[in-house]
Design brief:
This protein has 317 residues and is α/β, with parallel strands linked by helices. It has 2 domains: 188 residues, Rossmann fold (3-Layer(aba) Sandwich), CATH 3.40.50.880; 110 residues, Homeodomain-like (Arc Repressor Mutant, subunit A). It has 14 helices and 9 strands. The protein has a 4-stranded mixed β-sheet with strand order 4-5-9-8, with helices on both faces. The chain has a 3-stranded mixed β-sheet with strand order 1-3-2, with no helix packed on it. α11 packs across α13.
Length: 317
C-alpha cells in the first residue's frame, strides 16, 4: 500500500471538517480497516492503528489505497476486501480507488461495464483481465455514480476537494482547494470527464455552448442564441439547465472565470486587462464575479498560483 494514497486524502477531509463553521462542525472518524486489529507499518517511522472490519459498517467514504505490488497478488491473498467493497457500494458510500486499487473494484464486480481508470503501468493488464469494464486510458479520474477511480496519487487531492463539497459545503471545498496548492491542480467536478458541462448528448445545447465560448467578450444575448438554435428563450433556458446543470448566464461566468485563471497564472496583465480579456468592462464587477466562483479575489488567486502560498483566507480583501 502506498502511504501517500492514504495520508493525503485523510489530511484533506480532516482539514475540510476543521474549515466548516463551528456550530455545525462535524466529527470525522477515520479508520484503517483490516482482518485483524494491529498497527500497520506504512513506511519506516510511519504507522497507523488498524481496526477489524465488523461486517456491517457503511462509511461515508470508502478509500481503496494504491497497491504497491502486483494487483493480482493482493487479490489472491486479500480477497476478504472484496466483500467490504460490495457492502459499501450497496450501502451508498462514496467509493474511491487510487491507482491499481481499481482492480479491487473490478474484481468485486461493481464497475460492470462502466468507465474506470487505473495506474498507467497496469493499463494492459487491467484491460485484458476485465474486458467488460470501459478502461479510460485518457482520464485521471472516472466516475460511475458514487464510484470513483483515480489514476494516480497526484489526482486524489482533486477528488477529495470535490467530495469535501459534497459532504460539507461548496464554501468549505473552496477553502480547502486554496489550501492544497491551486497552482498545481484544478478542481475536479463530474463535468471534467469531458470539457466543462459538455458531457451530454443535446447537440443544440452543445452548439450554444460553443457560441458562448467563442464569443466570450460579448454580452449574453439569449434571444439571439435561441433564434440561432430555432427555439424559444424559455425552451433554450430549460434545455440548457437540463443538459448542463446550470443557466446560460452561470455557464458564461464559469467559462470567463476559468479563462481568467489561466491569464492570471500565465501572463503579467493588470487585473483590469484580465477582466477586459474575458468580457468584463468594469474591474470591480470582474473582481466580484471572480470571487463569487473562485472563493478569492483575482489578486489573491495570482498570489497563490505564482507564490505558492499554502493557505488563503477567503475573507481577506
Amino acid at each position: 500500500m502506498l502511504a501517500t494514497s492514504v495520508t493525503l486524502p485523510l489530511e484533506i477531509i480532516r482539514a475540510a471538517a476543521h474549515a466548516s463553521p463551528a456550530p455545525t462542525r462535524p466529527q470525522v472518524l477515520m479508520n484503517l480497516v483490516s482482518q485483524h486489529t494491529e498497527t500497520l507499518q506504512l513506511a519506516p517511522g510511519l504507522s497507523m492503528p488498524v481496526v477489524e472490519d465488523d461486517g456491517v459498517t457503511i462509511p461515508d467514504i470508502l478509500l481503496i489505497p494504491a497497491i504497491w505490488r502486483h494487483p493480482r497478488w493482493v487479490l489472491h491473498h486479500h480477497a476478504w476486501q472484496l466483500e467490504i467493497v460490495r457492502r459499501c457500494v450497496a450501502g451508498g458510500s462514496w467509493v474511491c480507488s487510487v491507482g491499481a486499487g481499481s482492480f479491487l473494484l473490478a474484481e468485486a464486480g461493481v464497475l460492470q461495464e462502466g468507465p474506470a481508470t487505473t495506474h498507467w503501468h497496469w493499463f494492459d493488464t487491467f484491460e485484458v483481465t476485465y474486458p467488460k469494464v470501459f478502461l479510460r486510458r485518457d482520464q485521471l479520474i472516472t466516475q460511475q455514480g458514487r464510484i470513483f477511480c483515480v489514476g494516480s496519487v497526484n489526482s486524489i487531492a482533486d477528488l477529495m476537494v470535490y467530495l469535501a463539497g459534497q459532504l460539507f459545503s461548496r464554501a468549505t471545498a473552496t477553502t480547502i482547494e486554496n489550501q492544497f496548492s491551486p497552482e498545481i491542480r484544478r478542481r475536479f467536478s463530474p463535468h471534467d470527464l469531458g470539457s466543462l458541462s459538455e458531457s451530454h448528448q443535446d447537440e443544440k445545447i452543445l452548439d450554444v455552448q460553443w457560441l458562448i465560448r467563442s464569443e466570450l467578450k460579448k454580452g449574453l444575448n439569449l434571444a439571439r442564441l435561441a433564434e440561432t438554435c430555432d427555439m424559444t428563450v424559455r425552451t433554450l433556458s430549460r434545455r440548457f439547465r437540463a443538459a448542463t446543470g446550470m443557466t446560460p448566464t452561470h455557464y458564461q461566468h464559469t467559462i470567463r472565470t476559468e479563462e481568467a485563471k489561466a491569464l492570471l497564472l500565465n501572463t503579467n496583465l493588470p487585473m483590469a486587462e484580465v477582466g477586459w480579456q474575458v468580457g468584463f468592462r468594469d474591474a470591480s464587477v470582474f473582481s466580484r464575479r471572480f470571487r463569487a466562483l473562485a472563493g478569492v479575489t483575482p489578486r489573491q488567486y495570482r498570489t497563490a498560483v505564482r507564490g505558492k502560498v499554502f493557505a488563503l483566507d477567503p475573507a481577506a480583501n
